[in-house]
Each structure stands twice: as structure tokens, then as C-alpha cells.
Design brief:
By secondary structure, this protein is an alpha/beta fold. The chain has a single domain (2-95), classed as Rhodanese-like domain (Oxidized Rhodanese, domain 1, 3-Layer(aba) Sandwich). It has four helices and five strands. It has a five-stranded parallel β-sheet with strand order 1-5-4-2-3. Strand 2, helix 2 (26-30) and strand 3 (37-39) form a beta-alpha-beta unit. The chain is globular and about 35 Å long.
């Protein structure tokens, strides 16, 4: 499900077992990320598929990328795998007004 930033943040606050998943490359992640996010590069299918095995199917997983395209793909893939509660940050981190953690 695509959510605008305020809806996405509200969903994180309300959800039990909430996880934040960043599906960008490690290089993109190092340039800045949303606090408490887990980085699983969707372009590296092995790492991505192994990483999502760590989640419960009932977890509330809030996914983002740079612009919302890769995270939308990740949501669709995870829904096909039986994940019940996946939420895409519409327009990605490019449009994010909240705090961004700088890895450097």
C-alpha cells in the first residue's frame, strides 16, 4: 500500500512489530537514511531474499527507497511471499521531510 509521508509515519507509530526497510544500495544508504531502518539492497536479490526471511509475515514493514519505485517493487514481492502488512513510502526519501541520519 502506498502511503504519503505523514500516513507512513503514523502507521509506524501505531503498528506493533513495526520495521523500517530501506531497499537502496549500501552506497545510497551511507549518504543518509531514516532512523532505525534496516538496509537490504533490492538490486542484490540474494541479500534481499535472505534478509526478509528474518521478518515475521505478520510484522508491519514500512519500506522506502530513493523515489518510491524500488520500494513499491519490494512491497509487491513481499506481498506475493505472504507478508500481510507492507507499506511503501510514496516518493521515497527524496520527498522525506523528517530526520535523516547521516552515516558519515
Amino acid at each position: 500500500m502506498n502511503l504519503k509521508e505523514n500516513q507512513w509515519v503514523e502507521s509506524i507509530k501505531k503498528s506493533k512489530n513495526s520495521k523500517i526497510l530501506d531497499v537502496r544500495t549500501p552506497e545510497e544508504y551511507e549518504c543518509g537514511f531514516i532512523e532505525n531502518s534496516i538496509n537490504l539492497n533490492i538490486y542484490d536479490s540474494h541479500i534481499f531474499m535472505e534478509g526478509i526471511k528474518e521478518f515475521e509475515k505478520s510484522d508491519y514493514i514500512h519500506i522506502y527507497c530513493r523515489s518510491g519505485r524500488r520500494s513499491f517493487q519490494a512491497c509487491e514481492l513481499m506481498k506475493q511471499m505472504g507478508f500481510e502488512n507492507v507499506f511503501n513510502l510514496e516518493y521515497g526519501i527524496l520527498d522525506w521531510k523528517g530526520n535523516i541520519v547521516n552515516a558519515n
